[in-house]
Amino acid sequence: MTPPKLTRAALERHLPILTWTKTYGRDTLTSDLVAAVIVTIMLIPQSLAYALLAGLPAEMGLYASILPLVAYAIFGTSRVLAVGPVAVVSLMTAAAVGNMALQGTAEYAAAAITLAFLSGLILVVMGLFRLGFLANFLSHPVIAGFITASGILIATSQLKHIFGVEAEGHNLIELVSSLVSHLGQTNIITMIIGVATVAFLFWVRKGLKPLLMSAGLKPRMADIVAKAGPVAAVAVTTIAVWLFNLGERGVKIVGEVPTGLPPLTMPSWDLDMWGTLFVSALLISVIGFVESVSVAQTLAAKRRQRIVPDQELVGLGASNIAAAISGGYPVTGGFARSVVNFDAGAETPAAGAFTAVGIALAALLLTPLLFFLPKATLAATIIVAVLSLVDFSILKKTWGYSRVDFTAVAATILLTLGFGVEVGVSAGVMLSIGLFLYKTSRPHVAEVGLVPGTQHFRNINRHEVETRPSLVTLRIDENLYFANARFLEDYVTDRVICDEPITDVVLMCSAVNEIDMSALESLEAVMHRLSDMGIRLHLSEVKGPVMDRLKRSHFLDELTGEVFLSQFDAWAALGNPPAREAS
Amino acid sequence: MTPPKLTRAALERHLPILTWTKTYGRDTLTSDLVAAVIVTIMLIPQSLAYALLAGLPAEMGLYASILPLVAYAIFGTSRVLAVGPVAVVSLMTAAAVGNMALQGTAEYAAAAITLAFLSGLILVVMGLFRLGFLANFLSHPVIAGFITASGILIATSQLKHIFGVEAEGHNLIELVSSLVSHLGQTNIITMIIGVATVAFLFWVRKGLKPLLMSAGLKPRMADIVAKAGPVAAVAVTTIAVWLFNLGERGVKIVGEVPTGLPPLTMPSWDLDMWGTLFVSALLISVIGFVESVSVAQTLAAKRRQRIVPDQELVGLGASNIAAAISGGYPVTGGFARSVVNFDAGAETPAAGAFTAVGIALAALLLTPLLFFLPKATLAATIIVAVLSLVDFSILKKTWGYSRVDFTAVAATILLTLGFGVEVGVSAGVMLSIGLFLYKTSRPHVAEVGLVPGTQHFRNINRHEVETRPSLVTLRIDENLYFANARFLEDYVTDRVICDEPITDVVLMCSAVNEIDMSALESLEAVMHRLSDMGIRLHLSEVKGPVMDRLKRSHFLDELTGEVFLSQFDAWAALGNPPAREAS
Q1: Are B435 and B459 in contact (CB under 8 A)?
Q2: What does the pLDDT look like over B501-511, one tens digit per residue?
Q3: Mind telling me how many Å the CA of A308 is from chain B's nearest CA?
Q4: Which end of chain B lies in a sparser environment, N or C, as judged by fewer CB atoms within 10 Å?
């Protein structure tokens, strides 16, 4: 059953921009412009930093923050989602492209562009063919574990910039050992800049807001001003490097960033490269979509607005294709920036388009100023941003709630840290599915008896109930399908095989929403085996849709017993079993 | 919940032979001996033929029919399962080993031995760690489709022997095109032998039994005599080739078969080879186990005997390891032979051990007689045997019953025919799992209302029921888990977002057997979003185990509404909603 559809024209469904532009007015424009200014200030240092994290030139971070935002404004359904480079996707880009080319080469950048294109293509196809359900295979605990482990990996990967040393690695062990072996070459000035920036940014997060509020700012305004912390850090450290000529004393700087609007680029059409990048692109698409749609839905609900997940796929896909043709790399909706956009009062996706204009102006005018920007500053902004992603409480929550979920999240964290993002998230998905199938493959089956004086049937092991030696009633608390069909066969056969007086077995199906072909054949096998032992098989409380389907098979014609509407009917009818010969 | 355990000693559980030997007597011995003679007569031509199918020398078929049978008699739990080479596993062996070495080489045979060892190891490990549930991932329709397609592939692959030409291929297209391109080289005498044998064997199947019965034999005896048809064909065609010296006129013959008991062999310890063969060994293990345990259970139920699936894994694993150390190749329980064994009156696994003695005698005494046996005769026995596996009725059955199952079976058949056994069965498994997750990811959700004058709630779209504008009740007919958590979020949010008077949403959970962490977080998200809209979320009819788990989380503390024991309680309590301000 699909959710109720709104009756808009197909065109508006595929181009959400047609909806909100109809009522666009001066007030909306003002709100959107204010939000755009604030998000732009936040996005400039972030886009440079995440490009660094992805192993790409700084300008590609800016390019990824221009056209993709415009594309999302046209195709996306969220009013406030702020699209652009984000930490986790940048790390995944580095992991995917790092297998194919060396950082700093033209091949590396070309592969990142192709990755964005592929990822966009996958998202658009998923949207048009309504394959958004594929994202469901990522369970919440797996995502939470993956994000936490990614945060740790990202922060660790940035420590080299803080110490001003070389270090490489795609997992925690490689990163840490590479870092430790190079610590002797630490550049003291770089380290001072890096550590001071980290400390400053943490203070901005925790200490600045109270200070601003005591100076008379309103809480919301204080919040927004605090978001400008990274810009201040960028400005101060850049000026320091320029003033004291620190670049010549070993402080790594961003260097020349080309001035101008994004170039027109094309993805590679090399099918071998597509093959190599496909799985990475799929993972990036799905992770990006899941993270993005979740924040979009949460923010939309606050204003009783509606998100269309399949159209969101198209919107994010269009953004990534836009990134690929304008020198960018994979993007998605960012959590922190979207919340800022929402809090700053953005009312329509136009705010995103205005942000794009802001970043374009930065690319045109500000890039010469970035020459002396130390990489340590960017690394510090990344570290402070991603440490807020690290949250081990999911381990405690799942431990208390469900060991299966705990296993999935613990494995995802360990595998991501130990073997990198792609192994971690793939293993998490497979483990979630495997554990779910395992769980449902051994369903809860209760043997039930009549609660005296009522028409209710309860577990014989938990309640004082009436039973009869000739009658076994099994309540199956699970859908019957291939993964538990054999279990049912074994269970029923085992229950009756050594118990001579039994003449009737009733399967109580009140919690069975589905009987697939495998389970149907297992039921047939059980029926024939019971029949060989002189036992009849009955069903009770079969749900309507399940019964409709059973009627389309031959099972009911061959059934040795009956189908009872209620378990009490079965109890009453089988109360005086006909005299039968032993088989 | 595990099935009730019998209280036998652990030793007897792991060595079932200790159980049945305790009561072994003269009557049992006679029955077992008779069955063993009949199965031996059936097994001699089959073991030679299946070795040919696997691309192995004929004697390896005999070797695979000696020690493995003894091993199963010690470790297996079925009284009547006839272990040995079977058609589908032989084809899978050819597919797996054919990637690694050329047929006829020592490497090819060594790889087959290693495959048997690996497969045995996998089965034993699955048995000891109770991983038999892994076999559940093969749904019945996928197996049925796979067996049908394999039968077609096998029969087609044997046509080259009937025509006496060379042809190769691992899928139907390769096989047919290779065959057609070589048809010009058909050896007429070979073809006459082959076609005549096929015709004779079909007649034996269909026409001989009525003839024998009209000659006064009892039906069961007539059946058993008819099983000797292949032996007669082998004898007659071998004598014909010898008499008329047909070997020199291009009829391919088996040639020299070494005389003697099986040699002691060892698998390769090359870990690279293990890596290459692992997936094939896993597929062979699982397919072999599933086919074998199913026939074992069906036959056991007819005599009220019990099969222990986990111990069956150990039994089949021991058989394969035995095959590996005695010059054999992968084996499993054969369907047709087991039924013959059962019908012939086998009472204990000793019948299998006696069959092993029979085959050992054949290997010692009869191999010189096999020199002139034409390969066309063996191919004919294979073709006639496997065509009984081909059964397209599963397509019709699933089409009527469930399109999801139909899709899985159709894809398995097409992919097996088009890309070979390994691709076919792997794709079938993945498709079954994917389709199941897809199905449960879009669960049936019904909006329900009160049937007037009762306490029952029914779907508002199907029944005349009472509803209230302020109250929405959704009955969820599925477990809530990661694959449908997002669906639930979307569904509930969509339902209420444009419907202003709603103040209360009740989720009716009578068919929900499980709420995993993802679904719990989705419920929390839904609750918060509803709360932002001024709507309370309630639950009703939550099952005991689900409630126990919810109590271990914070969800119930934060729940904006209540948990009602019955839906009617919810209806009554929410009948006069308190005056609320719009949000």
Answers
A1: no
A2: 889 999 998 88
A3: 9
A4: C
